[in-house]
TrEMBL record:
PANTHER family: SPERMIDINE/PUTRESCINE IMPORT ATP-BINDING PROTEIN POTA, SPERMIDINE_PUTRESCINE IMPORT ATP-BINDING PROTEIN POTA. This is Choline transport ATP-binding protein OpuBA. Keywords: ATP-binding, Nucleotide-binding, Transport. The keyword Transmembrane helix does not apply. InterPro entries: AAA+_ATPase, ABC_SmlMolc_Importer, ABC_transporter-like_ATP-bd, P-loop_NTPase. SMART domains: AAA. Residues 2-236 form the ABC transporter domain. The gene is opuBA. Pfam families: ABC_tran (PF00005). It comes from Aureliella helgolandensis. One of its GO terms (biological process) is quaternary ammonium group transport. The keyword Ligase does not apply.
Amino acid sequence: MIELDNVSKQYDATVVLQPTNLQVGAGKTVVLIGPSGCGKSTLLRILIGLIPPNTGCVRFQGTTITPDNVLEIRHLMGYVLQDGGLFPHLSVTDNVTLLARFLKSMNAEAMQQRVQELADLTKLPVETLNRFPSQISGGQRQRVAIMRALMLDPPLLLLDEPMGALDPLVRYDLQEDLKQIFRELKKTVVLVTHDMGEAGFFGEDVILMANGRIVQRGQIQDFLQHPAEEFVTQFITAQRIPIVAASQ
Ligand code: ADP
Ligand code: MG
């Protein structure tokens, strides 16, 4: 569905992503995990075409992303950031419908209907639709960011630590709801997190990165039982997951 073919990225002499191959199948959820600064956000931004790679290419549904087609292809990708990235001067509804209005791809009635549908799906209270982002809670802001990403019904969703800034109880609810949404909509999903518990909750298919490269891909269980290298064990141990502590 989406793939990286020998993609690398460097800034001046610093390599932030080593030559990387990655394939994500249609309808699959992949979780990217790794310590801060290992290149997760860079990899995601390359997938969505916000950063051009130094080598290699990105293919989306078989088409190589180029400067000519990147804008068009990006409309087939929903992107959610840790802080939501909402425009503070636009209401919730205006944030959600911004791109659809810009592209003139829907009439007003269809847009309103879609917003309602997405509010239901993400469990956003309808009374918040006319408020500004500063007038709703952090958890609600992330629900709005998810609505905005889903507005044009893209086949691919890219989420960069969407729950990273939320307190544990709010995060717990949103994790449950997001998992349900992924299942229901059958989207292809690439989710970035730095939390092993969250990675295990969302995915059978977890990719662990360190220092700009993929160290291991598989289930959390594989990481525990068959670590590809010492770093995998160190990373898991540092997360203090109770099942790991109990087995040591
Ligand atoms: P992560 O999301 O895993 O925390 P990032 O992908 O944001 O990591 O960053 C990976 C590395 O690339 C970091 O060391 C960061 O400082 C560096 N980096 C990211 N963007 C730039 C940039 N525009 N110029 C120089 N270095 C950058
Ligand atoms: Mg990041």
